[in-house]
Structures are given as structure tokens and as C-alpha cells.
Amino acid sequence: MSEIVYLNGEFMPLEQARVPVLDRGFIFGDGVYEVIPVYSRHPFRLPEHLRRLQHSLDSIRLANPLSDGEWTRLTRDIVARNEGDDQSVYLQITRGVARRDHAFPKDAKPTVLMMSGPLSTPAKDLVDSGVPAITATDYRWLRCDVKSVSLLANCLLRQTALDAGAAEVVMFRDGYLTEGSSSNIFAVKSGRVLAPPKNHLVLPGITYDVVLELAAAHGIPCDVREIPEQEVKTADELWLTSSTREVLAITTLDGKPVGTGKPGAVFRRIHPLYQEFKRKVMRQAA
Ligand code: PDD
What we know:
Layout: E1 4-7, E2 10-13, H1 24-28, E3 31-39, E4 42-43, H2 46-59, H3 68-81, E5 87-94, E6 111-118, H4 124-129, E7 131-137, H5 152-163, E8 168-173, E9 176-177, E10 184-189, E11 192-195, H6 206-217, E12 222-224, H7 229-233, E13 237-242, E14 246-253, E15 256-257, H8 265-285
The chain binds N-(5'-phosphopyridoxyl)-D-alanine.
């Protein structure tokens, strides 16, 4: 069965979905997006994703084309029309189609796309082994809190990691940890979880919030503060988090082992807590 997508009010097979070349998403990367994990056909933390979407839209001065109720119905619809209990819903809104001009068009209609593909969360061997990462300078713009479709820097940075045989970059700006190319980064030092604050330099991750909530609820000490590069390089543990990769241990950084070079003790507590939390939320939604 082909994937069914929603484009500007209509459902259609993915192959039939077309956007004009003058779409500002194509010409300028002028749009925002969300990725929502779906477990057992239930969208995970949908209200939080919609809140972040509103923040992104407000930040680029684009009116939300749908209400939260409409987004919720649409998400359920797209999930129902596609195969698989676990899916990854992608939605994107651009400023619409207009003659190429940097200035905002006066009366363009936003382009609204929603699609859903299979959600592939990390396999058990990856969870057990952890992944390699490399360090990089964060050379993105200064509004990384906006989930913008302009992801050229993120793509270049991710490819640098892949070329080095690593799964992710751990980025620093002015000597402090920011995040990964498509994930948030946590450190652990002497049993304390360290997380960079949510500000304009990082995407406010939904998984980041879940991890901090779980740590607080289970008495794992956490500090949300600026983390100097040196502290990251000497951390006992490093983790990356995202909706698709959940929580993964980073076990080497620039080819050197992080801590023991295996997923650490705090990771081995948080990972099962995350899995259990997911199952609990899904049971409640059912
Ligand atoms: N990316 N930081 C960046 C730059 C990201 O692109 C992402 C997620 C995250 C983690 O956010 P969340 O926990 O809400 O997924 C942090 C998605 C998955 C993507 O672009 O595919």
C-alpha cells in the first residue's frame, strides 16, 4: 500500500503529492515542521508538539492555518490511513506559493503537508552498545529554538558525523554544549544529569522534557545549566535524545571512550524508565 499524505486539504498517495516550484519552502526554506512519534497508533505528546509548532509559527510570523483540534483530528486521520502501529508523523507548513521575493507575500496561502512513515526506533543492539559521536562547532543560526525546515547546516553537520563513522555530532558554541544535528545532548557527571538550558541556541526537545521529568520523578539529580566543552569531554556518560532515536548512549566521542566506553549506570536506569513511561501513556490513551 502506498503512503497516504495530506496536502492542502486533500488526502492522496505520496506519489501524487505535488508542490509548485515557487513554494517558499522550496525557494527559501521558509517554513516550519514537526516530527511526532506514534506508538500503537497513539501520537506521543501531541499537545506538546502542537505547542512547539505554535512557537515556531509565531517566531516566523506565520498564522497557524489549523486549530489544535484540527491538527489533532488530522494527525489521527493520517495515522489511520497509513500502515503500521508505530509511525512517525511529519508535518510541514510553508509560507506558500509566490513570485520569488524575500519580502513576505501579501496574500499567499500557507502550504500544509502531513505524512506518516514507519517509526524505526533504535534496535536493541544499538541501545546496548551505544553510538559513536564526534564534536563539531555549532555554526547554525541564532534561532535554533525554531523548528525550521531550513536544515542545511544540520544536514552538513550530520554528514560530517557519518563520514567519520559516527552517528551524531555533539556541538559547541563559544565553548558550551548546544545539541546534536537532530537531537538534544545530555551529560552525566558523578551521578548527576547535566542538560543545557532551553534557549535560542537549542531546539526545545519533547524527548528532552520527558527525560528530565523522568529523572526528577525517580530521584535522579539533574542540573539544567550551561555545560563547558571540557565537562562534556570528561563526562562519565553522554546521551542523545530525539523523538525517533528516543534515548541513546554516546559511547565514544572523537574516537575516545566516554566513561567506560559502554552505556553507563544512569543510562541503564533512564532507558527502561522511558520505555515504561511510553507504555503507560499508550495504555492510558487506549
Ligand atoms: N529532530 N534538536 C534538533 C536540532 C532536532 O532536529 C531534534 C529532533 C531534536 C530533538 O527533539 P524531539 O525530542 O522533540 O524530537 C533536538 C527530528 C526528530 C527531525 O528533524 O527528524
